[in-house]
Amino acid sequence: MDQDYERRLLRQINHQNVPEGLSSKSGYAACSPVTVKSGDRFIPTRAGSNWSINFHYANENCWSPNQNQRAKDASTDTGKDAVAYAALLRNELLGAGIETVPDPHTDDRRNALLTQDTHSLFRYTIHTKRVPFDNEISPYSLSPLSNKSHKLLRSPRKPARKISKIPFKVLDAPELQDDFYLNLVDWSAGNLLSVGLGACVYLWSACTSQVTRLCDLSVDGDSVTSVCWNERGSLVAVGTHKGFVQIWDAAGGRKLTSLEGHSARVGALAWNGEQLSSGSRDRVILQRDVRTPPPVERRLQGHRQEVCGLKWSPDHQHLASGGNDNKLLVWNSSSLLPVQQYSDHLAAVKAIAWSPHQHGLLASGGGTADRCLRFWNTLTGQALQSTDTGSQVCNLAWSKHANELVSTHGYSQNQILVWKYPSLTQVAKLTGHSYRVLYLAVSPDGEAIVTGAGDETLRFWNVFSKTRCTKESKSVLNLFTRIR
């Protein structure tokens, strides 16, 4: 570190009061409560509007991008200085011997400061000067700082993680339903966002901001209840209120097939290669191969109420399903009965996400009466960790590049939380939606997310890191790491 930075810290020691705590927590903007009816099935009525005209940017962010960046940089620098200041005080007053500045965003930064050796506190010691070596200060130096503090000031500091509290884009989404059991937003590998609004499905290009209407179900007296892209981003599946599952070619804008089989609305969809799984209010999960003219069908029956969450594991071997019966079930690709069943949640399980970093690690979140995030080792059937989030968990998604995940919430805080795993510490808390944040999708590059809510807005946030961590994460869940 340069001499100006050292002088600034010395000036703080000489002229400022010692702060009460050794670390500072960044303040979070409080989300004003919204008076709503409790219960996951509350669906308010809204006047319809035509989304095909265009997206309208909501003028909620009155700051320019340069002003936002300056504000973020100022808050980040303040956090860095506070950590260095606390470490420097412990060196000079308590003889802690800290030689490197802890990262203000790491989980163990506070513990590292509090667990330093304080054996020299209130003890008389005689300090003898020694001949300086390469990295020690000169005995003729006029600096009042100790050798450890000089090492602290010279130590390199990692650039702090920056997560903006303001969405970088806000779009209007009229007729976006406020229904906990639907899944109306998905982001394709081709950078197209599909959104179900009323009876229509719209595609929004993240590259050109162009909007196209893919389908309109109003001619059949039907409405959209779920959308899901296949892995290549060429086909989009549309679940309807009447129980149909339609397969659409996004590039050609034409319907390829319409699948029957459900007797009630289809609120959850999940692709596994060329196979499509659909979950319905009729409590049945249908798995079908869309390549065959009459699709080969597998009926999975295990839930006693509506199926509202479906996710395939990254290795394509297991399907996780959540239902309104508070159950989380795990199915394999051959059995018609669940191979695992978890009953710890106390409310509907819609939020489900498989970890891309640790084999067999599954995360789930419960509804209003539960509010908990829970993690499971599906290789052994063991419950790992859980934490109470304080509000209804609506969605979960893992970062593609780091061992982090994001959760969106409903009653009563309507917030977005970024978590670090396995410590389950909050990296960021984002607010802005005035209704439950029911919809979540991750961009194909893994950096941004889009959230949707009953306030009829879509908000885009930069929450995840850009590059994959070079340090290999060793998981006790991965059996292959122990093979020699």
From TrEMBL:
It holds the Pfam family WD40_CDC20-Fz. It comes from the Eukaryota. InterPro entries: Cdc20/Fizzy, WD40/YVTN_repeat-like_dom_sf, WD40_CDC20-Fz, WD40_repeat_CS, WD40_repeat_dom_sf, WD40_rpt. One of its GO terms (cellular component) is anaphase-promoting complex. GO terms for biological process: anaphase-promoting complex-dependent catabolic process; cell division; positive regulation of anaphase-promoting complex-dependent catabolic process. The keyword Endoplasmic reticulum does not apply. Belongs to the WD repeat CDC20/Fizzy family. This is Fizzy-related protein homolog.
